[in-house]
Amino acid sequence: MDKISDQLAAIARERNQIMISSKEHEHLLSLTSDLLTQSADQMNCAVYQISTNLDKILYVNPTLEKWWGQSRETLYNNPQVWFDLIHLDDISMVKNAFIQLAQSNSTGILLEYRLVKPDGSITYIQNKCVLIKDEKNQTSYILGTAVDISNYIRAQQKHFIYEQVLNAYNLESSDEIILNTILKVVCQSLDWDEGEIWVYNKLDESLYCVSLWHRLGQAITPFYNITYHMVVKAGVGFSDLVMRKNRPLLDNNFGDSPVYYRSKAAKIVGLNTALGVPIIFKDEIIGVLNFFNRKTKNPSAEDMQVIPKIAELIGTMTQKIINFDKPESSAHQDDLTGLTNRAGFELLLNTCIENINSDEKLAIVIVDLDKFKSIIESYGAEIGDILLKQLSFKFIQTLGHQAKIIAHLDTDVYGFIFDGLTRIEMLRPLLDNISVSLQKPFIIKEQNIHAKASIGVSIFPDDGLDSTTIIQNAHNAIKKIKSQGGNAIQLYNEAFEKKLADDINTESALRHALSENQFKLLYQPRVDLKTGKVTSFEALLRWQDPVNGLRLPHSFMHIAEESGLAIYIDEWALMNISHYFSLIHSNLPVSISLSEQQFKKSHHVLNLINQLIDKFSINPSLLQIEITEKIFMTHAKDMLDILFQLKGKGIAIVMNHFGTEFSSFNHLQQLKPSHVKIDKSFIDKLPNDTKTATIVQTMIQFCHALGIKVIAEDVETDDQAKFLVKEACDEIQGPYFSKALSIYEVKTLLEKGTKLTLPK
After folding, report:
1. Which of 148, 176, 211 is the last residue of a domain?
2. Would you give the DSSP letter of residue 700?
3. Which one of 7, 74, 366, 567 has the lowest number of neighbouring Cβ atoms within 10 Å?
């Protein structure tokens, strides 16, 4: 598995190449039209001229012809060909940016978008555009230069995927959870709808599915039901074919192939593309890693570097044998099934509630068999007992150590406890596994017995604060299902049901956003209230969601925190700051907020910043780390050492949202950040709210007494600015001076030497 440092080195090399190409951009954009055409034909970056209404292409150089796969004549005759090759998710953004450039006084823009080649491969483009005017200062045309940044983006993608997989491997306690997490990471990052792990059993020469993850909800049920924990004899099916060929196989017509036993089910749910990769352990094939997709997919060469490495890690893991531990005490053991009985279940539930961590939840799942009495009446009590035993074994086989306990609570009622749930999304695969256990008929004395069930779920502490209430509410959820005909899953809290679906969709979209580079950074300047000069910038995260449009952090960062993705978003942001600010040669500091998770893993944030400083040749004094007052107060004891080490490297610490908590004088004196930022909630009330004005005055004096500079954030009005000047606030940030800017707008701002006109 590639080390993170190796990935950073590759990214840094690609960044250096982009910097060289960027200098070509700057040189070209400074030339006159005649010189431009002569020089551009010799350059290795793409150059074009297009009319401001986008209806005519005036010039393209040979590099652009090569990238777009079209001749100059074709592009000159039909400019729409240009836009037809831009990725569908990016084309509106590109057109709108050109139109806004033509209609504004902006000197230029910086775009990143994707080209889709005729063979389906993706090229990532970084495009600089400027507005050219004639001698009468009338808009003439748009001039653009572009560089291929695909290697840079793909290096980031691989780094992101490997990091997630390694974290799952190192941090999760259960092999089942690790395997499921790995499938989820790869599927969501590389855009596959379903992933499977199959293992070969030499003893009976069979293949069986040990883990499966999908993102299609109920739509995939027919395919999911026949796959999970399926056992097939060697010599049959797609997985066996991959093993016999001993190489990756791709089939874009899986659903129409008569040779695969699951092709009909795949066609029903619309799965068209199948990719199989051998799982190797000590030079021996021990299984197959499969992926399926509704859309036709042709994995890139980069994808086919990542997936086999993931398969190697899975090969190591699938050698481990997991045994289900039966309860030790016979007093808490059910005589028929050998599972924990109701008394043991309630005892363990109380223990779990007493020991639960404040940032975790606990789920109770009650499975109530539908029409079990009818089964007894039709087939007899003996078959009923055998059914309960087989069902108990199936639950054990399917859920293993994923459940804290599996219990037989009553004749036809089972109970499950799932603890350590840091996010509600973790419930979905667990509920899926219970449901799958009931899908196939049980064969008992040559009779096919179908076991259907109503499944109720309640969550601690949201649905109750004691075991009795939690269990009762799970039963209440079952009553609702029974009234509607049974054979379904119901969460007691319907808001949780919706949140579960929303969180799953958002997490999946976030992983894909990181993989597809859908995030972007804007930079908001801070200005000195004595000189009016720009002193630094804050990097602000935005998500260019192709479905929901531009999204601000408050709409998705809580999911990123809960799912562990915030760490990778931080990494992405730090790398992009390192890359882009080196391109504009700014010597002003940039600050960025880091997630709370970074400080729970001190080695992570310290190692990451060390590597960035080394690989990207960053001047530490140009990097500022922002932490919120709340995070500092919650983790002050653990964070002080980390923050001192960062300060020791010359990195400034900024305390954000100051005034919203109750920082002690001692803590601030110990940390002594370079700046504190007075929270927007105070600034909004200035200067008319007397109480707020007094608080702000006190905060400024308090910080100055400690030698700490004060920044007022989100300053909007002249009256606010006048008050802050009067009270000797050091700096302000917000729309009063400037909105958040793109990196190209930052460059223009600095080149013009724009200053704040200080209020009087």
Report:
1. 148
2. H
3. 74
Taking the C-alpha atoms of residue 252 and residue 720, their distance in angstroms, rounded to an integer, is: 62
The answer to whether residue 253 is domain-embedded is yes
Residue entry with tokens 């997991």: 322
Contact 661, 621 (CB under 8 A): no
Report which of 112, 213, 118, 193 is spatially closest to residue 156, judged by C-alpha positions.
Answer: 112
Express each pLDDT in 46-76 by its tens digit.
888 999 888 899 988 888 888 888 888 998 9
Q: Note down the domain range covering 487.
A: 330-501
Cα separation, 185 vs 507, whole angstroms: 10
pLDDT at position 624 over 80: yes
Do residues 679 and 639 lie in contact, with contact meaning Cβ atoms separated by under 8 Å? no
What is the rounded distance in angstroms from the CA atom of residue 651 to the CA atom of residue 567? 19
According to DSSP, residue 407 is labeled E
- Which residue carries 């009762």 as its tokens? 472
- How many CB atoms are located within 10 Å of the residue 532 CB? 13
Integer Cα distance of 344 and 334 in angstroms: 9
DSSP state of 449: E
Instruction: Tell me the C-alpha distance between 97 and 34, whole Å.
Output: 26
CA–CA dist 447, 494 (Å, integer)? 38
Residue 510 lies in a domain: no
Q: How is residue 141 written in tokens?
A: 């045309």
| Domain at 355, CATH number | 3.30.70.270
Structure tokens at 71: 């001749």
DSSP 662: -
pTM of the model: 0.64
SS (H, E, C) 102-141: HHCCCCEEEEEEEEECCCCCEEEEEEEEEEEECCCCCEEE
Angle (deg, nearest 10), helices 303-317 and 175-190: 170
Distances (CA, A) of 447 to 226, 241, 382, 395, 436: 20, 34, 13, 21, 20
pLDDT digits (tens, 9 = 90+) for 302-331: 788 889 888 988 887 776 533 333 334 456
Within this chain, do residues 177 and 271 fall inside the same structural domain, yes or no?
yes
Residue 175 lies in a domain: yes
- Give Cα 211 to chain centroid, integer Å: 22
Alpha-carbon distances of 565 from 573, 607, 627, 699, rounded to whole Å: 12, 18, 18, 34
User: Would you state the structure tokens that stand for residue 453, as one six-digit string?
Assistant: 């069930």
The gap between the terminal CA atoms of the chain, to the nearest Å, is: 61
Q: 584 pLDDT band (50/70/90 cuts)? A: low
- Return the HEC string of 247-273: CCEEECCHHHCCCCCCHHHHHHHCCCE
How large is the angle between the packed helices 150-171 and 4-29, nearest 10 degrees?
160
CA–CA separation, 228 and 198 (whole Å): 10
- Alpha helices per DSSP H over 649-754: 665-671, 680-683, 690-705, 718-726, 743-752
Of 52, 51, 137, nearest to 100 by C-alpha is 52
Count of positions (residues) in the chain? 760
Tell whether 201 and 220 lie within a shared domain.
yes
Which of 171, 213, 170, 209 has its CA nearest to residue 189? 213
What's the one-letter identity of residue 585?
Answer: H
Element spanning 482, H or E: helix 467-483
Is 197 in contact with 289 (CB distance < 8 Å)?
yes
